[in-house]
Amino acid sequence: MKEDGFDIKKLRKFLVEAKKQTYANENVKKVDPVCPNSEDYRYEKSGWVYYDMYFGGRKFIGEEVVYHGEGRPKWGMNYYGFTLNDDLTEEAVDKALRPALMKVGEDTDTLPVRGPREFVNGEWRYTFMIKSSLSNFTGMEEISKNDEVVYRLHCHGGLIE
Predict the structure, then answer these.
(1) At 133, which helix (H) or strand (E)?
(2) What does the DSSP 8-state code read for residue 84?
(3) pTM exceeds cut of 0.85
(4) Mean pLDDT, to the nearest integer, of 47-67?
(5) Which of 25, 111, 117, 148 measures 20 to 30 Å from 103, CA to CA?
């Protein structure tokens, strides 16, 4: 399927692969930071390049950008996440969040920009709600521990022209 001359189906497939080879995968190493104090990931395959750069820990902001073809950005997403419980550490959030994000693409009716619609791992419950399409979307993810929401992330993005 093409939107505005861009193959969304190929983008979708690449995003799933790139996300599983960057932050979501705890075994993947970060790349040298582009900006001071940023945490950066990069994945490249078959002419596609994915970048993820964020700042912060318990409260963080970042962006993802996909390049394809002529070296121009084609798709992007901004996100802001934060803990709602001051006792929750960045490490605890990572342990709850990364397994959910590794499930990206398995829930085929959810856009592959974060995790599945829902994922339960012991006392942790991850949910992701998203509206629209890869060309223009907004979304929100939450993590609950023992039925109390302890983390939230807002995201938005789409095609870049």
Answers:
(1) strand 124-133
(2) S
(3) yes
(4) 97
(5) 148
